[in-house]
């Protein structure tokens, strides 16, 4: 029964996001809006991770199965996209480079802002023994 309740919670957020996307005719997919609402509910402690942990772990562990239809769709429409494979490959590589660069910059920013450079109190490096 616990699993059914957890999947109901996840599907409810997905349904709410889908409904908002359709009602307001937004260019953002409803599943993304639902995921944002789920994140906010978890962040603001309206929902505990224990309420969705079993189903969430199952979905994450089986994520490759969830992407299988997209891969099959690409192969089914290969005749339409095959003449654009150079452009598609270029866009994928460019997006990968941009993502790696931006992620590195964000990690550097967060590390410098919140952690700073670690300097031990005794000035000798290593661990401090109090």
TrEMBL record:
GO cellular component terms listed in the entry, alphabetical order: plasma membrane
Keyword line: Cell membrane, Hydrolase, Membrane, Transmembrane, Transmembrane helix
Source organism per UniProt: Floricoccus tropicus
Lipid bilayer topology: Multi-pass membrane protein
One Gene Ontology MF term: hydrolase activity
Keyword Hydrolase belongs to the record: yes
Segments crossing the lipid bilayer: 7-24, 30-47, 59-78, 84-104
Coarse class of the protein's main subcellular location: membrane
InterPro entries: LrgA/CidA (IPR005538)
Compartments reported by the entry: Cell membrane
Protein name, per record: Murein hydrolase regulator LrgA
Origin organism lineage: Bacteria, Bacillati, Bacillota, Bacilli, Lactobacillales
């Amino acid at each position: 029964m616990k699993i059914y309740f957890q999947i109901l919670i996840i599907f409810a957020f997905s349904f709410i996001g889908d409904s908002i996307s359709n009602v307001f005719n937004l260019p953002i997919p409803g599943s993304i809006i639902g995921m944002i609402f789920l994140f906010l509910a978890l962040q603001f402690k309206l929902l505990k991770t224990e309420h969705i942990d079993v189903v969430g772990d199952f979905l994450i562990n089986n994520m490759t199965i969830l992407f299988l239809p997209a891969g099959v769709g690409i192969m089914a429409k290969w005749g339409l996209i095959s003449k654009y494979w150079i452009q598609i490959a270029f866009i994928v590589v460019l997006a990968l480079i941009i993502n790696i660069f931006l992620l590195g910059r964000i990690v550097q920013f967060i590390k410098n802002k919140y952690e700073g450079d670690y300097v031990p109190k005794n000035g000798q490096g290593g661990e401090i023994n109090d």
